[in-house]
């Protein structure tokens, strides 16, 4: 018969397994003690962008003529049915928020080594979710990615300056024009004093049309930010 101590130990182990999966999020093989979220084979296969080229090989071009950005970098290339899509799905819909922090940390170390323009930033801000959506999901995946970036870059995260004021349906199936119409008036500044004169970096999970980030950046610049840069975990091919 299981003792109370054994029950508590098993419950704790199950909780740890939930937060820190023992299987690879890419291929489901067991991880070794030295591996985090991905096995070595899957991590090697990650389609990492070339950060030595200007703004991740043209990511910044998506914002050209729309909103003035300091820079725009993406860590991974997102393609349908690829490993990056599986990772994003695990983070957003399977509760693997810690995976977002780990990938953010890996991204941060790459940026620290290759992108000197990052060093001047003062704050990281994750694209906010509406409170209803955040309650449904249990967390904001962009803020968890920002946590990982913060650990690597030593730049603090601000979670109060920017807010989403209107609940919107998913934009996954919307085109570029529809996405912009859907988000252009959705974001507002909640704490202008904390960002005035600051060099801010916006964080999001996947860059598609850039409409959401453009809307956020516009609000931040209007509120008095010295500059805004963009970092996304992935960018759609």
From TrEMBL:
Residues 146-235 form the Phosphoribosyltransferase domain. Gene3D superfamilies: 3.40.50.2020. It holds the Pfam family Pribosyltran. CDD domains: PRTases_typeI. SUPFAM superfamilies: PRTase-like. Belongs to the ComF/GntX family. PANTHER family: DNA UTILIZATION PROTEIN YHGH (PTHR47505). This is ComF family protein. It comes from Nibrella saemangeumensis.
């Amino acid at each position: 018969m299981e003792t109370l101590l054994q029950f508590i130990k098993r419950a704790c182990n199950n909780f740890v397994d939930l937060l820190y999966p023992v299987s690879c999020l890419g291929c489901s093989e067991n991880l070794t003690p030295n591996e985090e979220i991905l096995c070595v084979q899957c991590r090697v296969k990650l389609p990492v962008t070339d950060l030595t080229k200007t703004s991740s090989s043209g990511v910044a071009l998506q914002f050209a003529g729309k909103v003035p950005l300091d820079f725009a970098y993406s860590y991974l290339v997102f393609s349908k049915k690829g490993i990056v899509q599986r990772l994003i799905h695990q983070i957003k819909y399977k509760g693997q928020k810690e995976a977002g922090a780990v990938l953010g940390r890996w991204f941060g170390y790459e940026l620290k080594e290759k992108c000197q323009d990052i060093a001047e930033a003062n704050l990281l801000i994750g694209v906010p979710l509406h409170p209803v959506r955040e309650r449904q999901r249990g967390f904001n995946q962009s803020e968890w990615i920002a946590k990982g970036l913060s650990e690597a870059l030593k730049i603090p995260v601000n979670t109060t300056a920017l807010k989403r004021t209107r609940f919107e349906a998913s934009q996954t199936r919307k085109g570029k024009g529809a996405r912009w119409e859907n988000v252009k008036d959705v974001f507002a500044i909640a704490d202008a004093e904390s960002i005035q004169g600051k060099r801010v970096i916006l964080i999001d999970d996947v860059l598609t049309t850039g409409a959401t980030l453009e809307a956020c950046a516009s609000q931040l610049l209007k509120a008095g930010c010295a500059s805004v840069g963009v970092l996304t975990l992935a960018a759609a091919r």
